[in-house]
Design brief:
single chain; 6-stranded mixed β-sheet; 3-stranded mixed β-sheet; 434 Repressor (Amino-terminal Domain); alpha+beta; 9 strands
Length: 494
């Protein structure tokens, strides 16, 4: 993370370098004219050191500018976007070190690039302001990119889980019992309190909170036993991995740093891996995917075997499929829907290898109602309305994306968000259908699996006879109108 002092040094160094180059001075010439050492001039330009007032005066005289200009945030039109970048939230929102990068080296590269690249940086800043992109937006996007780089498989965390299970002699224990998790926490001096949170009305939707002062994990007892086991396993992860820069509540309210978000991800990954050990889970998936026919019950049985939520199971699939089955063209979506208002929102997503369709849309458009995710949610809503709901609903679909060659096997599991709520949630994993997938999962060719042509949103979809459409294809109409204008202009010029 770049501090205010880092920013000041970088800005001064960039301005000094730009002025030196404009004056046609080499390092040696500038050093000689200012009576400064060559290494000191280099350290100033690279943002490692900030000169004292008397040296700034000497530099200003040689570079033919006044003192105030050198120490201000003003710069030439070419350099100003770089300075704006350094002073923006954008520079600190990107976890440079996790991607093997240094802000100083990138900024140095930018300062030597043509005006078009500088203009591009300026455009990014304007977009971030216009769309009110926050640090949290950047942090979450960066985390998803980080997961993509690693194919969402982290060997160090898998090894840590194996070590923990071995240390606690849990090797053969499945599913992991709540009492076992609580006993492991108590060994670290942490107590569990299931009563206090429920007495505070403002915390009814918060699942847990860890108080470091009195070493107590407060858990909201309104949530399911499977969710509670995840919360206990997650706290074990924070303690066992020694993650101190961390959130204390279940859902991060504010992300002050990327490290906090990353550590939260690591703890969640550890927790799910602890509940669904790698070797056991891989063997179970092998048995399911090699079946010649689609079997929805097999996927739900997997949740019951490990006593986990559908979301935990699907998330675990995104770890295992790329590493152990070579299936890395996939996406994961969590969708929340208000069935009375007929409104749906993607609340969590992950894309490996590319940005697959569908994806979260910030334009308030209507997501395609042909998705298996939404179809399964509506099925659950009908069960709830008829008081027939008993268990989550599993459904598969082969989704052919309109006007593309992309076909995905989509497996979705839907359930009510909470008892008595109009909100339904679904979790979906989409796997790009190619030769590798057909060989690995023979049931993908099962004709009993429904196949539908789908799109991202109704507003951009050209499937004119769609009966599930929630809104007219207004973006298609705009495009068609523009094409008519273009044709008319061509005729006008003939």
């Amino acid at each position: 993370m770049m501090t205010d002092n880092d920013s000041i040094r970088l800005i001064f160094g960039l301005k000094m370098k730009a002025l030196r180059q404009e004056r046609g001075l080499s390092y040696q010439q500038l050093a000689q004219k200012t009576n400064l050492s060559l290494s000191y001039v280099h350290d100033i330009e690279t943002g490692k050191k900030f000169p004292k007032a008397d040296k700034i005066l000497s530099l200003a005289k040689v570079l033919e500018v006044d003192y105030d200009y050198l120490v201000s945030l003003r710069a030439s039109k070419k350099l100003q976007p770089i300075i704006d970048l350094i002073n923006s939230d954008f520079i600190n929102a990107i976890p440079w070190e996790h991607f093997g990068l240094k802000p100083a080296s990138l900024l140095d590269l930018f300062s030597n690039t043509p005006d078009k690249v500088t203009a591009f940086i300026s455009t990014l800043l304007k977009i971030s302001r216009s769309y009110q992109l926050s640090k949290e937006n950047f942090y979450n996007a960066a985390l998803r990119s980080y997961q993509d780089l690693q194919d969402n498989y982290f060997e160090d965390l898998e090894d840590a889980v194996k070590s923990f299970r071995k240390d606690n002699k849990w090797k053969e224990i499945l599913p992991v019992d709540t009492a076992l998790l609580e006993a492991a926490l108590q060994k670290t001096g942490i107590q569990v309190n299931r009563k206090r949170m429920n007495t505070l009305e403002a915390l009814q939707r918060i699942r847990s909170f860890y108080s470091a002062n009195n070493k107590t994990l407060f858990i909201n007892k309104a949530f399911s036993p499977a969710q509670e086991r995840f919360l206990l396993a997650r706290e074990i992860a924070f303690q066992y991995l020694g993650l101190t820069d961390r959130p204390y509540e279940t859902i991060i309210q504010h992300s002050e740093s990327f490290d906090k978000l990353l550590n939260n991800f690591k703890a969640s990954y550890f927790a799910v891996a602890l509940l669904m050990p790698e070797q056991n889970f891989v063997e179970d998936i092998k048995r399911i995917v090699m079946q010649p026919k689609w079997n929805d019950k097999a996927w739900l049985d997997l949740c019951f075997k490990y006593d986990v939520t559908p979301e935990m199971m699907m998330q675990r699939l995104t770890n295992i499929l790329p590493k152990h089955f070579g299936i890395d063209h996939l996406f994961f979506l969590r969708i929340s829907g208000d069935m009375v208002k007929d409104e749906f929102e993607i609340t969590k997503e992950l894309h490996l290898s590319q940005v697959h369709n569908p994806y979260a849309n910030a334009t308030n458009e209507h997501y395609c109602r042909r998705w298996v995710s939404i179809h399964s949610m509506k099925n659950i809503a009908e069960q709830v309305a008829q008081k027939k709901y008993k268990q989550p609903y599993v459904e598969a679909q082969v989704s052919q994306y309109w006007h593309t060659h992309n076909r995905y096997l989509c497996i979705s599991i839907a359930k009510p968000a909470a008892k008595g709520s109009n909100e339904i949630v679904s979790v979906t994993i989409g796997l790009l259908i190619d030769q590798k997938l057909s060989q690995t999962m023979p049931f993908v060719n099962d004709k009993s699996i429904a196949e539908k042509t789908v799109h991202t949103t109704c507003e951009r979809c050209g499937i004119m006879d769609c009966k599930e459409r929630a809104n007219p294809p207004v973006e298609i109409f705009k495009q068609q109108q523009q094409e008519k204008i273009n044709e008319a202009l061509i005729q006008l010029g003939e």
